[in-house]
Every structure is written in structure tokens, then in C-alpha cells.
Amino acid sequence: MARTFLYLISVGIDPERLRFRQHMGNEMAHYAQDCWDAEILTSYGWIECVGHADRSCYDLEQHAKATNVKLVATKPIPKPKTVTLTVPVPNMGVIGKQFKADGKLIKTLLEKLDVSEVKKLSDAIASKKSYEVRGNDGRTFSLTSDMVTVKEEQKTLHVEEFVPSVIEPSFGIGRILYAVLEHSFKQRDNDEQRTVLL
After folding, report:
1. Which domain holds residue 135?
2. pLDDT value of position 137
3. Is the pLDDT of residue 103 over 80?
């Protein structure tokens, strides 16, 4: 946003007629964590000329879900560390008998569960309730305690994995150009016929 401000000033936008406005929750795009517009005051009022959307890691997560491919970046850590992970363990014999060809899909869906979902699965198993996993195609599969268990395992990490976030600036060049022309247009005092672009 600071770079956008400097750019707009450098091309001729009057800083007194430039502001940044944060989107309210009810006007934010479904993929955005936060969004700020650079708005320029013209004869038409305040118009949005640049949008800055914090898309977080929405896009990569959607691609990962659709393709069942892990899309993460890695960063080496100075010293390996051992962590305890809670992981679902599918009973493929029972799952295969119940769901036939969908067994492999269910195994993949279980492997992709995040920490909070594994906790929900564990709670469901402990209380003898079923747990539902949803595929990308919208189908749901109801799993019971004889189909899946949850266990803790130790894992030594040599790298840290994270899903990169994206900040998306979107410039309305036509609007900016119009605002530059309007902000540069001047009339001489007491002489409407003498107009200049400064």
C-alpha cells in the first residue's frame, strides 16, 4: 500500500485527494482475509482505483484440494526437532468392504485432515459416533470407530512447511489516468478560457 501511494503521487495524483479505505466484512470477496482500496477524489466523487487483497493461502489450498497434491514451501530449520503428531489410521479392510472403489479416496481424505479435524474425528470415535469426510465432488462418507482409529506418532522434522500467502494488488489504469488528467487540469484565476495541464 505504501508503494501504491508513492506510485500514485509520482504519476501526478494529488495526495490531498487520495485515501485508503478498508473493506467491511460484508463487502469482502470470499477469498480475501483483508482488502484495502486506494480511492481518488474526482469530479465523480471518490472512485476506487487500486485494490489490495490479502488472499492469504486461499488459491494454493483450493488447488491442493482439487488435485490432491500437497502445495507447500519449505524452510530449513537450524536444528532438527521432534514433534508429536495425531494421525488417523484407516482400517482399509473394513473401509474397502463398505465403500468399495471409494476406499482409496477416503484414505486420501483422512491423510489431508488438519489438526482441528483430526481432533473432531478423535472425539467422534471416543463417543462412538460416526465422523463424516467430504470429497471434492461433495459426496460424504460416514466413518465409524471400526473403520478408523487415531494414534499419536513421533516425527523428526528437518524443514518447516508452510503454504505461502498472496497479496494481490489490482490497478485500474484507466481510472488512474483519468484522475491524473483531472488533477492536472487547472484554470487561470478570473480567466476560464486559459486552461493548462500541469
Report:
1. 73-162
2. 78
3. yes
pLDDT higher than 90, residue 85: no
Q: Cβ of 59: how many Cβ atoms within 10 Å?
A: 16
pTM (2 d.p.): 0.60
With 80 as the cut, is the pLDDT of residue 191 above it? no
Residues 6+ apart with CB under 8 A from 118: 86, 87, 88, 150
Over residues 174-190, mean pLDDT? 90
- Is 106 inside any structural domain? yes
Which segments of 48-172 does DSSP mark as H helices, in order? 58-67, 92-99, 103-111, 115-126
* Among 168, 65, 175, residue whose Cα is nearest residue 109: 65
| Burial bucket for residue 147 (CB in 10 Å: 0-12, 13-18, 19+) | buried
Q: Which candidate, 57, 74, 82, places its Cα nearest to that of 152?
A: 82
- What CATH number should be reported for the domain holding residue 118? 3.30.720.200
Same domain, 83 and 153: yes
Q: Is residue 65 part of a domain?
A: no
Q: Can you read off the three cell numbers belonging to residue 2?
A: 505504501
pLDDT confidence bin for 42, thresholds 50/70/90 = very high
Confirm whether 24 is domain-assigned. yes
Three-class SS of residue 28? Answer: coil
Residue 35: all three cell numbers together = 482488502
Higher pLDDT, 185 or 198: 185
Contacts of 125 (CB under 8 A, 6+ apart): 131, 145, 148, 149, 150
